[in-house]
Write a structure and sequence with these properties.
The chain is mainly beta. The protein has 1 helix and 5 strands.
Length: 83
Amino acid sequence: MKLSEDLIKRLSKKYEPATLIHEQFRGNDIAFKTDAAGHVIQVFVGKRSEDGTIKGERFVRTLKFNRDGTILKDHWEAKGRAS
């Protein structure tokens, strides 16, 4: 599975720092974690179970910045099944 461009665009926004956010996107449940600066660094895509966990796919984001804070690298990588 690959992240869609629409989802990547949504995840590129800044959110509340150091939180886990639950939302819906195109019929799937998504949950994503943010870092201390509010960048999304991990996302789970699938269906939410009764205990609140997402069963589906897990993706991790690599962000690299230069000295003035400009993003040099922004890459999403599939890490396999999430349960």
